[in-house]
UniProtKB/TrEMBL annotation:
Name of the protein this chain belongs to: Small ribosomal subunit biogenesis GTPase RsgA
Assembly notes: Monomer. Associates with 30S ribosomal subunit, binds 16S rRNA.
Cofactor annotation comment: Binds 1 zinc ion per subunit.
A matching Pfam family: RsgA_N
GO biological process: ribosomal small subunit biogenesis
Domain of life: Bacteria
Gene3D superfamilies tied to this protein: Nucleic acid-binding proteins, P-loop containing nucleotide triphosphate hydrolases, Probable gtpase engc, domain 3
Annotated organism of origin: Thermoclostridium stercorarium (strain ATCC 35414 / DSM 8532 / NCIMB 11754) (Clostridium stercorarium)
Positions that bind Zn(2+): C246, C251, H253, C259
Homology family: Belongs to the TRAFAC class YlqF/YawG GTPase family. RsgA subfamily.
Length: 294
């Protein structure tokens, strides 16, 4: 049976991309009975009912690697976390929440610093330095002169990427620029409008380099749930590298003396911004944990 990828679903019809072209497929009632609704990003097996009209039925939905509700999309493997150099000032706590969400779901994070036309070289370096020790990829871009866009294009290669970040950082602008430059023709496609991230018809847009982007950005706010505060430090790659070097085993890196993480913050090897985010999230999660049976 042919296999394909759902690009979008509207009113019970699903656009399925496969190696032999794009098909409009309907879904068997049995899925509805099982409470499964296919979404963009689902890998499926389908039967072809009409080869010339390119129509078929979705017969199987493969197990999802992950699933997001807002926007409803499955199997993304990269989150582009967008911040602006300025205007708005970066919400580093949200960045960390998104990084942690990515880590937990086995998704590669990509930090995108947008609006670099509004800051100088030194200010850009300061933002980049926050993440130097993490090993996360960072690209810096601007709509002005499309600076950095080729590098962004390169990072999207072979990935299914969803864009995320606080309001006003430029997610729609970036998506529109991507659509203008690298999205393959797949019929009608509307431009993405500011603040109108309707989650009803989420679409995966196929790029010219084997990548896809989700046309609806998401996660402008986020609460972390289900993470034990004691496990939080394992989501900070630059902390993991110091494992075993704190005086106390199981050090929370908050109040204990002889803490290698805090020493590294002092010496500037670990970014203070990252550490402060860690502290805040730690306290938040600890409170959640202590109130878990209330
Ligand atoms: N100077 C500058 N402005 C930019 C850049 N990218 C986007 N903007 C502007 O920033 C504003 C917000 O951009 P949007 O693309 O609407 O931001 P968004 O993240 O989609 O915002 P929400 O829809 O609120 O989530 C717009 O006025 C854009 O023109 C950039 O690289 N440089
Ligand atoms: Zn420690």
């Amino acid at each position: 049976m042919p296999k394909g990828l759902i690009l979008k679903g509207v009113g019970g019809f699903y656009t399925v991309e496969s190696s032999s072209g794009i098909y409009e497929c309907r879904v068997r009632g049995v899925f509805r009975k099982k409470g499964i609704t296919p979404v963009a990003g689902d890998f499926v097996e389908f039967s072809i009912t009409d080869e010339t009209a390119k129509e078929g039925w979705i017969e199987e939905i493969e197990e999802r690697q992950n699933f997001f509700v807002r926007p409803p999309v499955a199997n993304v493997n990269q989150i582009a976390i967008v911040i602006a150099g300025t205007s708005p000032e970066p919400d580093f706590l949200l960045v960390d929440k998104l990084l942690i969400t990515a880590e937990r779901n086995g998704i590669t994070p990509l930090i995108v610093i947008n609006k670099i036309d509004l800051i100088n070289e030194q200010e850009l370096e300061e933002v980049k330095n926050i993440y130097v020790g993490t090993g996360y990829q960072v690209v810096a871009i601007s709509k002005v002169g499309k600076r950095g866009y080729d590098e962004l294009h390169e990072k999207l290669k072979g990935h299914r990427t969803v864009f995320a970040g606080q309001s006003g950082v430029g997610k729609s602008t970036i998506l529109n620029n991507i659509m203008d430059a690298w999205v393959m023709e797949t019929g009608e496609m509307s431009r993405i409008q500011r603040g109108k991230h309707t989650t009803r018809h989420v679409q995966l847009l196929p790029l010219d380099n084997d990548g896809y982007v989700v046309d609806t950005p998401g996660f402008s706010s986020l609460t972390l749930e289900g993470i034990e505060h004691a496990k939080l430090s394992s989501m900070y790659p630059e902390f993991i590298r110091l494992e075993g070097m704190c005086r106390f085993s199981g050090c929370s890196h908050i109040k204990e003396p002889g803490c290698a993480v805090k020493d590294s913050v002092q010496s500037g090897e670990i970014s203070r911004v990252r550490y402060e985010c860690y502290r805040r999230l730690y306290e938040e999660l600890k409170l959640q944990y202590e109130n878990r049976y209330r």
